[in-house]
Amino acid sequence: MPLYVDLHYIHSEDFSEEDAFRAHLADINVQDQFGVTHKKFWINFDQKTMFCLVDGPNKEACNAAHQMAHMDQACNIIEVSDAEFISFLGLGQKNEHDMALTLSGEVDSGYRTLFLLRMANLTQNDDYQKNKIYDFIKEYHGNLILQPDNQNMASFIFASDAISCAAAIDTFLRTTQDHLDYTMALVTGKPVDDYGTKLFEEPKTRAKYLCGMGLSNAVYIDAMTKTLLHKESQKINSDLEVFRTIDNNDFSFSETLFKAVKDRLTSADFKSEHLGKTLGLSKAQTYRKIKALTGMSPNELIREMRLRRSLEALKQNGKTVAEIAYELGFNSPTYFTRVFRKRYDTLPTTFAKLIS
Fold first, then answer.
1. Per-residue pLDDT tens for 32-80?
2. What is the rounded distance in angstroms from the CA atom of residue 34 to the CA atom of residue 244?
3. Are 344 and 351 in contact (CB under 8 A)?
4. Is-contact 88 112, C-beta < 8 A?
5. What confidence score (pLDDT) does residue 312 get?
6. Does residue 221 register a pLDDT over 60?
7. Of 134, 157, 132, 131, whose CA–CA distance to 145 is shortest?
8. Distance between CA atoms of residues 210 and 198, nearest Å
């Protein structure tokens, strides 16, 4: 049967583990009537959220069982695959009441700190760096989540482990002799949000925005991850000065900005003035907000995102440099080659041959 994870909000101020077990027991008492099986649950007392792992024929049956048990339905429920679930949340443990526990026996909140790394090696094939990155992720207790592009993602139960891992990887990449272009992001979030349809959709999206628009060779961290770090202070063994903190207001703007640039990236006449109109800001406001968030001017950001997209296109090795240049909104292959070489200190054709 399909596997589902759902979201519930806790409205009681003094909700306890015993209350959580009673709620889970109520679900178990009615589950057979709807052909569902409540397997496990996670609870975050600070954020007042619960997440249930349920086998069932469909979402409607899962919600109907919960409605009968509690006179209420889940705030949201999504279908997940076994592999996806294990990648993000891990196998973990549970107590005799089916409450999820970390491997160290603590209550598992279900929240995870996601690590995302965008990287391109302009010198040689990046297999060596990738293998070292995988080793660091394993060393700091992360679960590797395979991605279809040049990005590496991992899930960590503890924010402090994610921070230590990112710091170790950053140190390694900065000391390598190869010419690397990379950006890292650490974002903490819940497995199911209010309206999403995918596991960890919101934190994954936020990390993607940061890696897509962030400065090269920079590491970004969101406010929730930083808050968790203070609670896990005894585990911190990293210099936080190397991380750039992004607050919720910055995330809201970055989402709008990322979509605005992405939607017009292939248009050769797309300039900063068009971006300002899309954002509903004056020219001066557009410059200030984008510069503060990304460290780049609007036109520099547009060019940077085009160049990063070109790295992916060149890796696919199915189109000519001229085709890629025009498809990404560059006025000519000559101009594309010039800005690519200035940015990456190599020719597009050389990079394409390197990774073919």
1. 999 999 999 999 999 999 999 999 999 999 999 999 998 888 899 999 9
2. 48
3. yes
4. yes
5. 87
6. yes
7. 134
8. 19
Task: State the residue for tokens 């509690």.
Answer: 70
Contact between 330 and 268 under an 8 Å Cβ cutoff? The reply is yes
pLDDT, tens digit, 9 for 90 and up, residues 292-340 = 888 899 999 999 999 999 998 888 767 899 999 999 999 999 999 999 9
Alpha helix positions (H), 46-200: 59-70, 82-89, 127-139, 159-175
244 in Cβ contact with 226 (< 8 Å):
no
- Given CA atoms 265, 269, 275, 280 in this order, what sign does their dihedral have? negative
d(CA 284, CA 18): 56
How many CA atoms within 13 Å lie on the side-chain side of 312? 12
**293-308 per-residue burial string, b: 16 or more CB within 10 A, e: under 16:** bbebebeebbbbbbbb
What 3-state class would DSSP assign to 77?
A: strand
